[in-house]
Design a protein that fits this description.
heterodimer, A: 371 residues, mainly alpha, 15 helices, B: alpha/beta, globular
């Protein structure tokens, strides 16, 4: 009754809102979202990340992340904003090795050597190949510094970060979609039908959530026998549905007793239609917010998996593998890879979390914001 | 009762409250309201929902949210020469509970479910009086006893969910009385309760007022109820006071048209008018009212001819039983019988009223008839066919012939469906029209028949008021042209004036369509207005069945008499003879 009364009063107010336009649930939610400054800011950040991912997928950005474009461990210059540390001031191990080999080569070249063609019949072909534009990587001028620095092999950290973003976002979102789909489907069936269906699915869920998360992931990884983005998505998606299942099941239990569902029953509306056409739109906000929560969690999970070496393959890059690379180099004072990967992840995860909060507020009109 | 000549205990002067809204001009909920409450006086604020009566009470308690409320600078609420609107928060908190207390409509939600009753009352005593735990407990028992709670000592350790609605409200009253306040504000304290319990609570309030010489501000939408205990009545509408006066004067010579309308539009126990007057009939006659449109129903698509007046039985129910089973532990189940062997017959074109208090099984009965619950045993014959034994597929045609309208219009429409979607679904499902275009045309016809505009088709339920939503729910049920319509408390959640409109509409539609109603209600006056036969239920059993006239005039069972006696009727009866 109180609910009726409170909705009465809110109707009275929402009716007088009248700017003449008819407003559905979604347009009202959008308006509430637009009023939320933090939410809009985080949306812009997340959208920017998505644009980067799209560019990277289409090959318009970071396509050459695997190329060694700079000297080993090139320091960051931030497009000239940062003065790269003078190579002499703090010589890296690689630089020292390089110099020493160069010195040795110079010393050797003093002694006159016979031309290579005498001993190597292919030397001329090699020289020609080296001379041509396309294939000569060795001859190309290597840059001394990069905007975000370079890694051990002189690969651009910025490109790596962009490529890593692509991996992380794709893994996070796809796994979240998969887990939410499974959780929603099973939760809907369990909550709506109850009884034995519910018992069976609950049993399944309990068994699933009783196994330690990381062990389960290792087991699935072992069974699938291969590494890579698809595997990580499957692992995370197949293990992460339990939370959504519980939430959606509770929502369906709540809704199946509602009068509007009873009314649909009274008309003989088929179960399938009641499940996914009548009730699902009413719990869609829960589903949406959950995709978002899971995506944040899975992005972090992928980073951890790749960091530990269970994630992406060696010829792929992710924030996790970047952090792993950076870990051994930090002691040598090369901080830029860590900062780039960590910073990108922190920014995306924070923005995504704030976006989730804003979405939840906008989608659930019952939460009253008192400020 | 005459008020003492000295200054009033409480005076509200030029109170105006407006709610700020995003991007829109603020909404004036209360406009320039002034009244006084004398010591040991009961003042009633009466009005429909949205009239500003609760906002007025909350303003007096200082419970309005600060962030979006604007009050006029001339507004004053004076108590003992102090203007409460200009007190510090600390001062107000000390006054709340100690000098003024409030009880709410829904006792279940106003008590904290995770603390015992005893703890919650003791908390008030400890905070305001600084009592020790032992002293507080002793006082608690006293208070609960005074509030008429049986076995107060045991009730202390109970949680709110272990008490019935009436007992919860008594606990709330005990809590409100804890510091013997000078003013008790009761905001619709009995609306959620059964009539018999309502009568007990009203009696209790009267006794307490006399004993403690306190004042009561009683807020209600029910003029008849208010007449039982108020000394003065203030009628509000749209945030303004329409009329204020002594109870006697309000009932015998109401000056304002709105007050007259409120008095007339409620169905009565002692007479059955052919139609109920509505607020619109009294107010501006020039307004093109929805009601008038509904009255001038022209057949749009010709309705199928109906057997009328044959009085052949449509629905025969034979020893219908419905029990719920609750699992306990692994194997044990225990039975909770809800309907215990009910038998009755409903004839075509007639209305059978099912009356009883909450928990008597009347709603379960309705749902079981439609196979929304599985019957435990018994038979339901619809048009000669036992529908309980049919397969789900074979029952499908009967789903068209038997329909239901629920109590709460806010819950019975899918909030994510437009009205059009809600109406089209049953039309298409049962092939009431061929093609989408014909179906849409049919949906428009039904909207028109229940008195709504075409524009309603594309709107969402939340854009409508309660009464309008109930019209939509009614239209949806009628789209499949049912022969039996089960109305489960269809007007209980609505204001008195809206209730009159819906009842009139139900009567009109029955005349035109020849549909039979099974009308479930706890309101005996409403049942009397609409029904031909009445069945009184208690604890899942039928206590008494009979023709409306004879049953109301000469109730056979003690329980029926008790129910009839509990219906508030003060003032109105006397007024009716004059009108």
């Amino acid at each position: 009754m109180t609910e009726a009364i409170s909705s009465l009063s809110s109707t009275a107010i929402s009716e007088t809102h009248g700017d003449g336009k008819r407003r559905g649930f979604w347009s009202l939610a959008c308006q509430r979202f637009r009023d939320d400054g933090v939410g809009m800011a985080s949306l812009i950040i997340v959208a920017a990340f998505f644009v980067v991912v799209l560019l990277s997928m289409s090959g318009m950005a970071a396509s050459g992340w695997n190329k060694e474009v700079a000297i080993h461990d090139a320091p960051p210059d931030l497009w000239g904003l940062l003065k790269p540390a003078a190579p002499t001031a703090m010589k890296s191990l690689a630089q020292r090795v390089e110099e020493e080999t160069k010195n040795a080569a110079q010393a050797q070249s003093k002694e006159a050597l016979p031309p290579l063609t005498v001993t190597d019949p292919l030397a001329e072909t090699l020289q020609a190949l080296n001379a041509s534009e396309e294939t000569s990587t060795a001859k190309k001028e290597k840059r001394a510094s990069l905007p975000f620095g370079g890694d051990r092999w002189g690969r651009d950290v910025l490109s790596k970060t962009i490529k890593g973003t692509q991996t992380s976002v794709i893994v996070g979102l796809s796994a979240a979609l998969l887990a939410t789909f499974l959780g929603t489907l099973l939760g809907a069936l369990a909550g709506y039908y109850g009884g034995r269906t519910d018992d069976a699915l609950n049993w399944f869920y309990s068994v699933f959530s009783a196994i330690p998360y990381l062990l389960l992931i290792l087991a699935v990884a072992a069974v699938l026998q291969q590494r890579g983005v698809t595997t990580v998505i499957l692992i995370l998606g197949l293990t992460g549905w339990a939370g959504v299942f519980r939430l959606i099941r509770a929502e369906y239990i709540k809704h199946r007793g509602r009068d509007y569902v009873q009314a649909a029953h009274a008309f003989g509306v088929p179960d399938r239609r009641i499940l996914f056409f009548h009730i699902l739109p009413n719990v869609s906000h829960v589903v949406l917010v959950n995709i978002s929560i899971l995506a944040v969690g899975f992005i972090k999970a992928e980073v951890i998996l790749s960091f530990l070496g269970f994630g992406v393959k060696v010829d792929e890059v992710s924030w996790g593998s970047m952090l792993n690379d950076a870990q051994s180099e930090l002691i040598l004072g090369r901080w830029w890879e860590l900062v780039a990967a960590g910073g990108a992840m922190a920014l995306l995860v924070t923005a995504f979390s704030l976006l989730t909060d804003a979405m939840r507020d906008a989608l659930d009109p019952k939460i009253q914001r008192t400020s | 009762m005459t008020a003492p000549a000295s200054s009033p205990l409480f005076s509200v002067e030029h109170l105006s409250v407006a709610f700020r809204r995003r991007r829109q001009p603020s909404f004036a909920a209360v406009r320039d309201v002034s009244f006084t409450i004398d010591e040991n006086e009961t003042v009633a604020l009466v009005g429909e929902s949205g009239s500003g009566k609760s906002v007025t009470a909350l303003a007096m308690m200082g419970l309005l949210p600060k962030y979006n409320v604007e009050m006029a600078s001339v507004s004053r609420i004076v108590y003992r020469e102090r203007d409460l609107l200009r007190c510090s928060d600390d001062e107000r908190r000390r006054l709340r509970g100690a000098d003024m207390a409030m009880i709410f409509q829904e006792p279940m939600t106003s008590l904290n479910p995770v603390f015992t009753i005893g703890y919650q009352i003791a908390e008030v005593l400890r905070l305001h009086k600084g009592m020790s735990a032992a002293a507080a407990q002793a006082r608690c028992i006293e208070l609960l006893d005074e509030a008429g709670l049986p076995e107060p000592r045991r009730a202390l350790a109970r949680y709110p969910s272990q008490l019935s609605g009436g007992q919860q409200q008594r606990a709330m009253i005990a809590m409100a009385l804890a510091c013997t306040p000078r003013l008790l504000i009761a905001d619709e304290p009995t609306t959620a309760l059964d009539v018999t319990v309502q009568k007990q609570i009203v009696e209790l309030l009267k006794t307490l007022k006399a004993r403690h010489r306190m004042s009561i501000l009683f807020i209600s939408h029910d003029l008849a109820l208010v007449g039982e205990l108020a000394d003065r009545i203030i009628v509000m509408r749209h945030g303004e006071i329409r009329e204020a006066g002594d109870t006697q004067q309000i009932f015998s010579a109401p000056r304002d048209r709105y007050t007259q309308a409120l008095l007339q539009c409620r169905p009565r126990l002692d007479e059955t008018p052919s139609r109920l007057p509505t607020i619109d009939d009294f107010m501006a006659a020039s307004q093109e009212s929805v009601e008038k449109k509904a009255r001038a129903l022209s057949p749009l698509t010709p309705l199928p001819p109906r057997e009328r007046g044959t009085l052949s039985p449509l629905l025969e129910v034979d020893h219908l039983k419905k029990s719920f089973f609750k699992r306990e532990g692994l194997w044990r189940r225990y039975e909770i019988p809800a309907v215990k062997g009910v038998s009755f017959t409903l004839r075509r074109g007639e209305t059978l009223g099912v009356v009883g208090e909450s928990g008597c099984g009347k709603t379960t009965l309705g749902l079981t008839l439609l196979r929304l619950h599985h019957a435990t045993s018994g038979a339901v014959r619809f048009d000669g066919q036992d529908v309980l034994t049919l397969s789900e597929k074979a029952f499908m045609p009967y789903r068209r012939r038997m329909q239901i309208v629920f109590q709460n219009p806010y819950a019975s429409l899918n909030p994510r469906f437009t009205v059009g979607q809600s109406l089209l679904e049953p039309i298409l499902l049962h092939r009431m029209a061929s093609g989408r275009q014909a179906a849409t045309a049919l949906a428009f016809d039904w909207l028109y028949r229940v008195g709504l505009d075409r524009e309603a088709f594309d709107k969402y339920p939340h854009e409508f008021s309660g009464g309008q939503r109930q019209r939509i729910a009614l239209a949806r049920a009628l789209t499949v042209e049912p022969e039996l319509l089960i109305c489960d408390e269809p007007v209980s959640a609505l204001d008195v004036s809206v209730q009159a409109q819906i009842l009139n509409l139900l009567k009109d539609l029955q005349e035109q369509l020849g549909v039979s109603y099974l009308f479930i209600s706890h309101d005996l006056a409403v049942v009397r207005y609409l029904c031909d036969t009445v069945m009184v239920m208690r604890d899942g059993e039928v206590i008494e069945t009979g023709d409306v006239e004879s049953l109301y005039r000469n109730p056979q069972d003690a329980y029926t008499r008790q129910l009839l006696a509990a219906v508030p009727h003060s003032g109105i009866r006397g007024q009716a003879s004059e009108a």
